[in-house]
Every structure is written in C-alpha cells, then in structure tokens.
Amino acid sequence: MLQGLRNYLIVTGGYWAFTITDGAIRMLVVLYFHQLGYSPFEVAMLFLFYEFFGIVTNLVGGWLGARIGLNLTMHMGMALQVVALAALTVPDAWLSVPYVMAAQALSGIAKDLNKMSAKASVKIMVDDGGESRLFKWVAVLTGSKNALKGGGFFVGGALLDWIGFRSALGVLAGMLLIVLIVTAILLPTGVGKMKSKPRFTQVFSKIPAINWLSAARFFLFGSRDIWFVVGLPVFLYEILGWSFTEVGGFLAMWVIGYGVVQASAPKLVRRSRHGRGPGGRTARLWVFILALFPAGIASGLHYGLPPDVVLIVGLILFGVVFAINSAVHSYLILAYSDFEKVAMSVGFYYMANAGGRLAGTMLSGWVYQTQGLEGCLWWSTGFVLMAALLSFGLPEVRAEAEKLDVKNV
C-alpha cells in the first residue's frame, strides 16, 4: 500500500508540473496571437492539430501504454512538451499558422499521453478500498490537475506581461525538463503493462457502458470549449477591456475553483447506501442541471444585464456543476473498465474527450466571430443536452461491475 501511495504521489506531482505548462502555453498562444492581429477563428485554428492529434494519441496511447508501460508513455509526453515549448521560441517571422499548428500538434500529443498515463495509473495503484476509494483518488488527481491548469492560465498571462512570449516559453520548458528527469529516476518501470501484447484492434471498446460514456463525454467537453477556449478570453480582452494578466488571472481562478470542486466531488455527490460510487442516475441528474447555466448566461446577456456580473456569477455556477459532472465521468470510466485493459479503455474514452474539445475549439472561434459570445453559449447549451440524452445509456456501477467481474472495482 505504501509503495502504491508513493508512486501515486510521484505520478501526481509529474502531472501537476505538466499541467502548469499546458495551461500556460494555451493562454500564451491565445493572447499573443490575438495581439498580433489574428482573428478569433484564426486563433482557434492554431489549436486544430492540438485537438486532432489528441484524438489520435488517446486511441494509440492506451494501446501503447498497455504494451510498454504507463510510466514510459507519461515521460514521452513530458519530453514532447519540452520540444513543443522550445519550438515556439523562434522569431515572429517563423510563426506562420502552419508552423504554430505543428508545434501545437506536438503539445496535443504530449498532453494526452501524459493525461492518459496518469489517469490509468490510478486504477493500477489502488489495490484495495473498492469503488469508494477509487472515486476519491481519481477525483483528487483530476481536481488538483484542473486547479493547477488554472494556475497555468495565470502563469501564462502574467509571464506574457512580465518577461514576454519567448522568455516565458523558455522558463516553462526548463521547469518541465527538470521534472521529467526526477520522475524518470523515481518511478518503477512497467506500470500498467499487460502480460500479453494486445492487438491494436482491442483499443475499440466492446463494453456498451464505455461507448455511451465516451459519447456523452464528447458533448460534455465540447459544451465547455465552445465558449471557453476562444470566445470568453477574447470577449474579456476586446469587449470588456481587461489586460492580459487580468484575463489570465480570472480564468486561472475559475479553473482553480473548478479543480477544488472536482477534488471534493466524493463529498458532494451522494453515493448509494452500499457505499458504492456514483452511477448512471447520478451522471444524468448532474448533466441536466448543467444545461441551465449556459442558457441562463446567454439570456442574461441578451436582456442587457451587466456582462461582467453575468459572466462572473454564471461562470462560478457553471464551473461548480461542470466539475461535478467531470469527476463523475472520470470515476465511471475506471469503474466500467476491465482491470487488465484499463489503459486501452481510458485511451478510448479520452479519444472521445479530445474529439469534443476539437469540435468545441473550432466552433468557439467560428461561432464567436459570427454570432458573438451569446451564440457560443446557446451552442454550449445544445451540446450539454446531447450529453444528457446519451447518459440514458449509462448503467449503475454495481450491475456493470458484476457483469464484467472487474477486479478491485
């Protein structure tokens, strides 16, 4: 148990460091390239390969992790992120759209290798305590990651103001390289490696619960990114007149709060009388509640309420409920997964997550440019309702676990 806890803390620490750079690089790219004169849609296009290769990476990464070990795929992700950060330190004349898209592709591959590896490792390390313990550990990992991503947003905006674009990238790359070396020394080899070499075709899940959950996850995360990735920061900077540091700081506080709520989800979500984790009914309840908030924010803007008040209050409420939804989903993918094939199941699930982020990111730039932030919010509402409808296919964990005979879940 102590060895499992030690490894969990090492993985979590590495994941935290990576997440700071991931949040910072996103804020740096959005604000710096908007400052250079890129339109909202052009800024969104810079993330096209970031999200697209996230889909590919999650599909291949789970299979790769099952073959070579999750610790190795995690370190591959860190190394690629260092390269991606360094690639953007070139002079402005080199920073064409195709070049930045290619650098963001490396960052997208890095992010999803790291995330898939860390999330799947949790199930391997939880060797007792059942579903309740699993829900707690994955909620803490995911929630703390999102809090640190919020910190990354602030770091990115602040460093852009203080030392400029290229110096900020250099600082982030150096920090992550040190973490890579330390975690590579401390972590054991072969975590999550399957005894038999799985075929690539095995990455496509044959478990209905995982397929329904993955489809719901696509629309859940698309609903957030439709207005959060491009529309919201550009609106705050361009329409409300906030500085880079103010935009980065506000979004950082939102994501940090979101992460705190996510980490606290096991205390906020009522579990069954048998002490089991949440199931399909819980997922459906919270996603229907979520739909109220983007619709409410859009209505407030439409009827001329003060936009700063509407956005701040609406974002806080949206963030709380979205965090609970995300934590429930992050638990369910592990609870529904076969112990031996957890890396491939998590990879398939996060492939859908990346697909939703890709759709949301592209729509964020296009919808904001053509319909404004209010339009982004109505699209977000539609995506949440789709996630709610797909959640009717999610079973309760107890029935699914008994059906699959999942070890330690």
- CATH-level-4 superfamily name: MFS general substrate transporter like domains
Q: Percentage of helical residues?
A: over 70%
Q: Encode the helix/strand succession as letters.
A: HHHHHHHHHHHHHHHH
Number of helices: 16
Oligomer: single chain
Report on the structure:
The chain contains 16 helices and no strands. It is mainly α and 409 residues long. It has a single domain, classed as MFS general substrate transporter like domains (Growth Hormone, Chain: A, Up-down Bundle). Helix 6 packs antiparallel against helix 10. The longest helix is centred in the last third of the chain and has 49 residues. The C terminus is likely disordered.
Brief digest:
By secondary structure, the chain is an all-alpha fold. The chain is built from 16 helices and no strands. It has a single domain (2-185, 201-404), classed as Growth Hormone, Chain: A (Up-down Bundle).
